[in-house]
Amino acid sequence: MPWERQRPTWREASPALIAAALKRAQARPSGNWYVVGASAALRGDRPLGRTVAGTEVVLWRDEDGRPQAGPGACPHLGAPLRRSPVRCGTLVCHWHGLALDGRPFAGWKPYPVHDDGVLLWVRLDHAGGEEPLERPVIPERPAPDSALPAVWTGFGRCEPEDVVANRLDPWHGAWFHPYSFVDLTVTRAPEPDAATGGGADSHPGAGPDANADGGTGSGGGTDADADDGFVVDVSFKVAGRAVVPVRAVFTAPEPRTVVMRITEGEGEGSVVETHATPLTAPGAAGPPRTAVVEAVIAGSDRKGFALARAAAPLVRPLMRAAAGRLWRDDLAYAERRWSLRTTGRFPG
To answer: Do residues 121 and 113 touch, judged by C-beta distance below 8 A?
Structure first.
């Protein structure tokens, strides 16, 4: 039906309900882990530089392909290590030749890092301030040997909570993104006083002395309590009037992550992980900056999906473009929310 004739959702999209879901997400442990980007972005011949929560971080791969991470400033005279080359798995400062192999040296100390095969994570205990976890909280995903992942990264002037709040408002989908979604109905939403779930003591990787091994794998994380998710029936637009109806569940397994999992319909088991990583330190002057790293991990039992996986170099750019189009709007939502919050005008 025409966009203006669809059923309004503003009565169901209770500000109190969304705020309660956000509060529960923020209460879950992250173990001080932050997503820094796609695994594929970290090559063997050059480092990757990021700023996370005001901390300059550099990452590179050693000779065995394992990720290494640590402060992004050379301990000698502060050179930007993100611009230095990697030689035989060693990061060599381009100012004076100081070499780092990932072990502590000259006051430089590494950060725990984890490569889950799709995303790179770094643990910053001084920034997170939580009890450290050995591994990040990674949602259940389709089996790597039968999945097609694609990662999109964007940036906005907002805080991670504004990105998470956007994803915990599924009611806006068909109104705000009519080019992608139609016939959206939230069939179940958590009560505002739903149990928090996912406490630190129940996490299998919890421990103050935990240290990431830097290997690949699915990690020890799980999705949030299924009773604390938003169940949504929606049709994805394909072309013209052709749509694909699915049922999806939105959950927040940790403070900076929201997962959409398809539970019924085409692509059952596929997930979309939205990770919000603060770039600026809390309380820093000027507007905050947040990176949105969205991992779309598609899976299907259909025979034709094998062809899609074989054509991954052609399919991934299309997947990233679709995510980018949605986030062009959703970052505007998040930025607007931050602006209203910080000026005392947010009605929620």
So the answer is: yes
| Burial of 45 (C-beta count, 10 Å sphere; 0-12/13-18/19+) | exposed
Summarize the confidence of residues 141-170 as an average pLDDT.
Answer: 97
239-247 long-range contacts (CB < 8 A, ≥24 apart) are 243/182, 243/183, 245/183, 247/187
Asked if the model's pLDDT at residue 231 lies above 70, the reply is: yes
d(CA 95, CA 93): 6
CA separation for the pair 60, 81 (Å, rounded): 10
Residue 313: burial class (beta carbons within 10 Å; 0-12, 13-18, 19+): exposed
- Confirm if 269 and 261 have CB atoms less than 8 A apart: yes
What does the alpha-carbon distance between residue 188 and residue 247 come to, in Å, rounded to a whole number? 11
Tokens 């779930």 belong to 197
Residue type, 188: R
- How confident is the model at residue 223, as a pLDDT? 54
Tokens found for residue 29? 């442990």
* DSSP reduced 3-state for 68: strand
Residues sharing a CB contact under 8 Å with residue 185, sequence separation 6 or more, in sequence order:
232, 233, 234
> Letter for the amino acid at 97?
G
* Crossing angle between the packed helical segments 312-342 and 303-310, to the nearest 10 degrees: 80
Per residue in 191-219, pLDDT (tens digit) is 887 644 444 333 334 333 333 444 334 44
Task: Report the run of H or E that residue 273 belongs to, with start and end.
Answer: strand 271-278
- List, as one string, the DSSP characters of 297-309: EEE--SHHHHHHH
Three-state SS at 145: helix
Nearest to 228, CA basis, from 5, 35, 24: 24
Q: Which residue has the tokens 């890092």?
A: 113
Strand partners, 80: 73
pLDDT number for residue 66: 97
Of the candidates 254, 273, 253, the one whose C-alpha atom is nearest the C-alpha of residue 262 is 273
314 by Cβ neighbours in 10 Å (0-12 / 13-18 / 19+) ranks as exposed
Reference 293, options 184, 149, 173, 177; nearest CA is 149
